[in-house]
Write a structure and sequence with these properties.
binds calcium ion; 6-stranded antiparallel β-sheet; Jelly Rolls; 5-stranded antiparallel β-sheet; mainly beta
């Protein structure tokens, strides 16, 4: 959000000078939310739409109809991918990933991944285990994962946020990504 303040400065003749000053609010937290409902028509910054599906018969999505599924064939979920400078001119101190997960089976590999890379070379790679979150199987469970950015990152680095399923089936809905600066 940019607030534009226009100052009108009167002059001795009939002209008026307009002075425009841009005031940038400090640290407005950008929240990037995705409920998967529009994924199949393409959402900028999001990839791996092939994992976006409807839940099996008899099981409700957490929101709407669509979720992202990891399984034997797709170990990575629908993913947010964007260059850091396109998210905010400031570099993040932490990334917070919230959402809901549904798992029909125990899964010690199930996790949320934050990957920051420079042209494909990893700069930071962190996993937040969901093993405890899914202790109660076959129900939607909320998770909140906070990733400290403790490596030197640059504006041109690329951020990726996604879930990893380790070849087992699990479902995710309502991703919500925010940043601390
Ligand atoms: Ca949904």
């Amino acid at each position: 959000m940019v607030v534009t303040v226009v100052l009108l400065v009167g002059c001795s003749n009939n002209n008026q000078n307009q002075v425009t000053t841009e005031v940038k609010p400090d640290a407005v937290p950008a929240v990037i939310a995705n409920d998967m409902e529009n994924a199949l028509s393409g959402v900028p910054s999001w990839i791996n739409e092939a994992t976006v599906v409807k839940m099996p018969d008899g099981i409700k999505a957490h929101s709407g109809e669509f979720v992202t599924r990891v399984n034997q064939e797709n170990v990575y979920s629908y993913a947010f991918r964007e260059t850091l400078s396109n998210i905010n001119p400031k570099l993040p101190a932490a990334v917070i990933v919230k959402g809901f997960v549904y798992s029909p089976e125990p899964n010690t590999a199930l996790s949320i991944i934050v990957d920051i890379n420079e042209e494909g070379n990893s700069v930071l790679w962190k996993a937040y285990s969901l093993t405890d979150v899914i202790a109660d199987l076959n129900q939607w469970k909320e998770f909140s994962a906070r990733f400290t950015i403790d490596q030197p990152v640059k504006p041109e680095h690329q951020l990726k946020v996604f879930a990893f399923g380790g070849k087992k089936t699990a479902y995710f809905d309502d991703f919500d990504i925010s940043f601390e600066y």
